[in-house]
Amino acid sequence: MLPVSAAASPDVPAPAPVALAEHATLPDRYAAHRANLAEAARMAQEAGRTGRAAKLRAMEADGTARFLAFDGRGKGRAVEVLGDLETADRVAVLVPGSDTTLDTYQRFRAGAVALQQRLQARHPRSAVVAWLGYDTPGTVSATVLTADRADAAAAELGPFLDRLGRAAAPEARLSLLCHSYGSVVCARTRTGPEVSDMALFGSPGTGAGSAAELPTGARVWAGRGGADWIGHVPHVRLGGVGFGTDPVDPAFGARPFTAGPGGHSDYLKPGTASLDSLTRIVLGTATEAPHA
């Protein structure tokens, strides 16, 4: 059984994204994107799209949300910071998988909040960035079987990570945490030395035959929950369709981490073994688990 693709709202009116100067401060960026978000909510409400308007108002978080990017048009894009980025020396960037849009954003954000709370308890100088910076494919669609969306996303994610490294505290460690189709995105993203770790979970594969083929010098980790349906997806690649070697297969060469018994949407739920493992990866204290 596969989850049903979430309904999108491609025709909802929204303002164009804010254009900011490269030297704009983080507080100025946050304020500008909050204002754009508020305007998108107002326009959606006036157009009778009350469901989208309510979701956008929830994203505003009563005027406290911190967005590095926001685009309310179509399925939407949003890049939100949880924590104090300027003082953080441990930064996790969450890259979501299919069916993540502004209409399903709170589900994605809940995982980011759970991770940030876990990190803060162990290392106060930490931050989480929820990166909905690409047009995710639908779970039940042809696009989820190819790397086209991932290639376009990787071209955006790589430069973003460079900028993020400059915005965080000096010598901050960045970790990429990549769920489902997001693991295909991360596997295609060229990263610099500021990215220390890349964790692939709930992954359908990456399109690469091994971790050594990925365009990164980061440590590559992989884990899958015991009840994750994606483990039953054939790990093949034919004519550009499919993503090949399973990242949790020892032959791929990733470092295994404990993911517990959870399902495809459970990796960042509070109290799970997977959340604890991902926290340790971000903090640099993780140890490899035995291969299944």
> What is the chains' assembly state?
single chain
Biggest sheet strand line-up: 1-2-4-3-5-6-7-10
State the helical fraction.
25-40%
- Report the mean per-residue pLDDT as an integer: 92
Q: Largest sheet at a glance? A: 8 strands, mixed
Uncertain segments are: 1-8
Q: In percent terms, what proportion of residues is strand?
A: 15-25%
Distance from N terminus to C terminus (CA atoms, Å) equals 24 Å
Number of helices: 6
**Topology pattern, helix = H, strand = E:** HHEEEHEHEHEEEEEH
Please report the total strand number as a whole number. Answer: 10
Structural class: alpha/beta
Anisotropy-based shape: globular
Gyration radius, in Å: 18 Å
Structural description of this entry:
It is a single chain. This protein has 292 residues and is an alpha/beta fold. It has 6 helices and 10 strands. The strands form 2 sheets. An 8-stranded mixed sheet has the order 1-2-4-3-5-6-7-10. Helix 3 (105-122) crosses helix 6 (273-283) and helix 4 (148-167) packs across helix 5. The chain is globular and about 55 Å long.
Concise account of the structure shown:
Helix content is 30%, strand content 17%.
Supply the key terms:
10 strands; globular; disordered N terminus; about 290 residues; 8-stranded mixed β-sheet; 6 helices; alpha/beta; single chain
